[in-house]
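Below is how a single chain appears once it has passed through the pipeline. First comes the sequence as given, then the structure the pipeline wrote out for it. We keep one example in the README because the format questions we get most often are answered faster by looking than by reading.
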Amino acid sequence: MFHGGSGADSVTGALVRGATALAVALALAPLVLVLLRRANLLDHPSERSSHAAPVLRGGGLAPALGALVALALTPAVPGTQRWAVAVTAAAFGLVGLVEDVVGVVALRRLAVQFAAAVLSVPFLLDGLSGPVLWRAAFTAGVVFWLVAFANAYNFMDGIDGISVAQAAGAGLTWMLVGVAQDVPMLAAGGAIAAGATLGFAPFNLPRARMFLGDVGSYFLGAWLAALAVLGVRAGLPPEAILAPLALYVADTGSTLARRVLRGETWHEPHRDHAYQRLCRSGWTHVQASALVAAGIALSGALGAVSLGDSVPARLAADVALAGVIGAYLLAPRWLAGRTSAMAVA
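Resulting structure:
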């Protein structure tokens, strides 16, 4: 394993990098909007969509370019780690761009994503030491993680604002953790992820003028997944790194498990996620995304407890984290039951 390097980035420095990403994304978004209109890249609603009218897709080009520009201008981050995040996110983003423009069969797209994950391994796992079997197992786990979370982010990107909530929530949490624990890549990368998506937010909230598309969701999902790997490799507690992503992982994992158990094709589009069921129960996109944002923020705060020295406090926070995730997953059922009870009354 390796450590984050010497000389922690300050909060001010991290915020400057985030502001750079925000400014570039915000400046590019109108140009991307015009480009998408001319290309007529539309996401048409279907019976499984959460929107009622066609919306431009591919807007994720703006935050992706904003993030890459800000990362290139970040001297506090070691070169290998900078390349690790850039190569991983760009490779997945390119797969998404092709999907947005011409479409790719799901299983073929998955195979290309695994190739993209393998491509990033020399950068993400630079200097990995230990027994051969350990390195092989860790490498396989990282490849699976990159593909799994990039797809989870894509699956969850189904309503206005929800993916902004995930990237901004995790990014800001990691920025603070990275500064406090002297992990410059986590601090800068988190701030950049938050800034880039907040720069895109005005075009996605309160009503979307364009969607991230696969290019944006795969790029941002891979960016966060790569940062998580670097955070774990820096020796930070797993809760501090994974808690801000836990809600997305839990919603995706539980939804896929239910679909597999019902004998459904797991990779086909659907409206079975918890946030989608909330919207079907009458919640607006903004309300559902706000709940997700609150869950991510609370999860991140609970995960940060693991950075302290108190074992009882860490265990209590872990239990509370499980409770937060469980409450979110059960919220649609609770809401549906309450609505039914009110209708009967």
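Residues 1-8, 340-345 have pLDDT under 50 and may be disordered.

See the next section for the split statistics.
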